[in-house]
Specification:
Strand content: under 5%
Order of helices and strands: HEHHHEHHHH
Helix content: 55-70%
Low-confidence stretches: none
Oligomer: single chain
Number of strands: 2
Radius of gyration: 19 Å
Shape: globular
Strand order of the largest sheet: 1-2
Largest sheet: 2 strands, parallel
Distance between the termini: 31 Å
Number of helices: 8
Mean pLDDT: 93
Length: 221
């Protein structure tokens, strides 16, 4: 079993600026994000939003089974940040900075170019436990602020950092790539996002990739 590189048993909030724990300050980025998320969700009228849609959306059927990879996304974020915080602080920093960059770009877009999607089915083709959960998700995660998709952007960032991480098996890396692919597809199959939102996330990820790994590469010199 691996030995953590940081002994968090010594952690106290008063020691947050201690060099051993200062990387955890990056998690404050989530506080800023959720504050901006609340603002964009509640103070931008939906009538001001541009509708995201393309022909590909009409070819993608609703499939409730894609809820499984969709919600696995939450576990993957927590597990990835937790694992790196314990065993690879450098990768923790890269992943969290990558996430923060995508958050910042997306929030700017949501404010400057408010957008939404109207792809959600009015009536589910089937009624079951999965569609009940999807209906619940629709309730608290509205159809506004969708392009670029942060669900996809975070996932791509997670895959990027895992693929570059050392001492990680090729099987785990292959699983992460598979999981991220399914997560990105799930956003379209449960009608949380248009395909436009996925493709818009790609250049956002490219910017984050360049900024994050260029900075960390320079710091190694």
């Amino acid at each position: 079993m691996k030995t953590p590189v940081v002994n968090y048993r010594d952690f106290r909030f008063s020691k947050l600026t201690d060099p051993r724990f200062s990387h955890l300050l990056l998690l404050l980025g989530w506080v800023v994000y959720f504050a901006l998320y609340f603002i964009t969700e509640n103070f931008i009228p939906i009538e001001n939003c541009h509708v995201m849609h393309c022909k590909l959306d009409d070819l993608i059927p609703f499939c409730e089974w894609f809820l499984l990879p969709y919600v696995f996304w939450y576990l993957l974020i927590v597990f990835s940040l937790g694992y790196f915080a314990l065993y690879d602080v450098g990768s923790f920093k890269k992943l969290q900075v990558f996430i923060m960059i995508t958050q910042a770009i997306a929030m700017i877009v949501y404010i400057v170019y408010p957008n939404c999607q109207n792809l959600r089915p009015e009536v589910f083709p089937r009624e079951n436990f999965l569609t009940d959960i999807i209906s619940l998700i629709y309730t608290f995660d509205t159809n506004t602020g969708v392009c670029p998709s942060l669900h996809c952007a975070y996932s791509i960032g997670i895959a990027s950092v895992w693929l570059k991480a050392k001492d990680v098996s090729k099987w785990w890396k292959a699983f992460v790539v598979f999981a991220v692919t399914m997560i990105c597809l799930s956003t379209m199959f449960i009608k949380q996002h248009s395909a436009v939102d996925f493709f818009a996330a790609l250049p956002v990820c490219l910017i984050a990739e360049i900024l994050v790994f260029k900075v960390f590469y320079k710091n190694k010199k």
